[in-house]
UniProtKB/TrEMBL annotation, chains A, B:
A molecular-function term among this protein's GO annotations: L-glutamate N-acetyltransferase activity, acting on acetyl-L-ornithine as donor
Chief location category: cytoplasm
EC number: 2.3.1.35, 2.3.1.1
InterPro entries: Arg_biosynth_ArgJ (IPR002813), ArgJ-like_dom_sf (IPR016117), ArgJ_beta_C (IPR042195)
Site (Cleavage): 186-187
Annotated positions for site Involved in the stabilization of negative charge on the oxyanion by the formation of the oxyanion hole: 114-115
A Pfam family annotated for this UniProt entry: ArgJ
Protein name: Arginine biosynthesis bifunctional protein ArgJ
Length: 391, 391
């Protein structure tokens, strides 16, 4: 779905805004507000597994325990991580200020931050930004796009998605960052909205099911951010109570769409790489093998060079703690089987990796399970972007 | 120890040679032979933990079961990995040919290979190289240097070390590659020699103790090669039977010297980085924390940019499965404490990382254990070297 399409404001019952609050030194948009006008305010969230959790993660996780949100405030330009009790107070004060302006309770306001770790939030700028964003709140495409834009850091384009179910409800959302849930480059944040009527447990279960096979399977560099957060807000404004399985499918579609956009805009990306692992003894093995290949710098640099160096793939998967039989293993790239039966199956010149999209298929042939991990190459652009300035 | 110093031929009882056999397309030296003339031929080896093991690893591991070696033959330019039963036959034939030429048994000959995975060994070149190397076998500095040179791949200098114990014995060796034992870039191979008199169990225990705190703690990119091998050969020619603890110390010194040389010559290195982890609940935790920081691309690119971005270090260690208390944690770089008590302790401008050597000290403050992992930065040179050609 192209940037500019309706995201969080696609489903009925939501307003959004994105403003330049002066947190980013660039002067660009850096504060977003998403408000759920109801009639219902059911919500769920998943958060980073990193032991070093940013203040907004600690706050929002606590708030989400009651599965109810009126609003989410997000800022770019400062992660508010590793900032101690003072940083937590800043997050709390941000939520309080949003609550005051909107006339709701602070316990109904989630906070997300992304940017440099170890710096305090400039609270005057945040308060002014909240005031400006609250005044700018609107339904419609422009408002959703502004919010999606205000959370960007090293991203080059806004990422939005929307799916309308024939039963009469919609699921929308935006995301920023470039990595797995519990990522990595500059934090992954996503806000999803729906006007379906859902109970808290249904919504929570749907979010966990959807993120497990989407955000959790994007792995750009194995990092895990202190701030990663995916929130979903349900307004019930459509009056439609969906079948839970169908809703999970729609939510998964939106997450998958956003994840593809994150993959395509990852730092320094010149190749989008799908690592498909088949024939695993169980799904955990498939994920572990895919993730290890996706994180291997020798594989990632070879693919940057369009080099079908399958020996590096064999090397990478051989160090995974998974059930592997080297003689049964098959490795293919862009449709050409390169390794099978314990030895080379084709000359590497038989495969063309010069395009932007690469598919690696590893068939372990030891069981029926599979998983796909999405990743990118390791390019000069990645090194440049991550060495030339602090993020 | 500068290249050119005596390595494997430093201890008495050893001859070596390195020749150009025509395996490398560059035409450089690519086949080395190290012979133990005794009077004793005690040996021990440690090998890659990768599930995908090259043919020479399968062969040498089997040979080492009797803890006795007359000779080691090593080649660069072809890893002979993922080559199936035919590849194993090539290794076996190589050992047989060495055995014939030297008048020993094939079961007394270890084989090591390094280079591209998935290609078959050019056996005519190997046989010719073995003949030439056997004819060139010599004691003395030049022979050891030639052998150390013939195993290089992307290395830019030969790595040799020698320690003489006042009790009258010596420990020498050479190494190639750039990673941890069970590494990584282009394979790590090392051959160590000593003229001390040692039993098989003593030698084996000393090798495991020495590699555990040296080769095992060099981690350039987390990779684990299919071919990694460290062998030690004891000739007994000095007639000196050392105290086992003292010998382990000497062997560790030689390994440590070689590992420092590998670190300094790693692919694309512009910074040598020591990650010192203190105050861990146990040694495994210290190693896991150090290794995760050392492998984190966001940390490695920041350090390439001389940027004391300690937030990335905090992020990296927060994803380790180890006992960590964020409020107790301290992070320092080149002697300046940057994070303590859950928040920033100094401005990042207080630390200078512009030099080639960087020391990161992480004190977990939860126990008495520590470990140091040696690594390098992630530079444009690394990406270039690993994307521009197959290795």
């Amino acid at each position: 779905m192209p940037a500019g399409s309706t995201g969080v404001t696609g489903p009925a019952g939501f307003r959004a805004a994105g403003v330049a609050a002066g947190i980013k030194s660039s002067g660009g948009k850096d504060l977003a507000l998403v408000v759920n006008d109801g009639p219902e305010q059911v919500a769920a969230g998943v958060f980073t597994t990193n032991k070093v959790k940013a203040a907004p993660v600690l706050w929002s996780r606590q708030v989400l325990e009651q599965h109810r949100l009126r609003a989410v405030v997000l800022n770019a330009g400062c992660a508010n991580a590793c900032t101690g009790p003072e940083g937590f107070q800043d997050t709390h004060a941000t939520a309080e200020h949003v609550a005051d302006v909107l006339g709701v309770g602070a316990i109904e306001v989630a906070v997300c931050s992304t940017g440099l770790i170890g710096e305090r939030l400039p609270m005057d700028a945040v308060r002014g930004g909240v005031d400006a964003a609250a005044a700018a709140l609107d339904v419609g495409e422009r408002a959703g796009f502004d919010a999606a834009t205000a959370v960007l850091t090293t991203d080059t384009v806004a990422k939005q998605a929307l799916v309308r179910d024939p039963d009469g409800y919609a699921v929308g959302g935006f995301a920023k960052g470039a990595g797995m849930l519990a990522p990595n480059l500059a934090t992954m944040l996503a806000v999803l909205t729906t006007d379906a009527v859902l109970g808290a447990e249904e919504l929570d279960a749907a979010l966990r099911a959807a993120t497990r096979v989407t955000f959790d399977r994007l792995d750009v560099d194995g990092g895990t951010s202190t701030n990663d957060t995916v929130l979903v807000l349900a307004s019930g404004a459509s009056g439609v109570r969906p079948d839970p399985a169908a809703f999970t499918e729609r939510l998964t579609e939106v997450c998958s769409d956003l994840v593809r956009q994150l993959q395509g805009d990852a730092e320094g990306v010149t190749k989008t790489i799908d690592v498909v692992v088949r024939g695993a003894a169980d799904e955990d093995d498939a994920v572990a093998v895919g993730r290890t290949i996706a994180e291997d710098n020798l594989v990632k640099t070879a693919l940057f060079g369009s080099d079908p160096n399958w020996g590096r793939i064999a090397m990478a998967l051989g160090r995974v703690d998974a059930r592997i039989d080297v003689d049964a293993l098959e490795i293919a790239a862009n449709g050409v089987t390169l390794f099978a039966g314990g030895t080379r199956a084709a000359d590497r010149s038989a495969v063309d990796l010069s395009g932007r999209e690469i598919e690696i298929v590893v068939d372990l042939h030891v069981g029926p399970h599979e998983a796909t991990i999405l990743t990118t190459d390791l390019s000069h652009g990645y090194v440049e972007e991550n060495s030339a300035y602090s993020s």
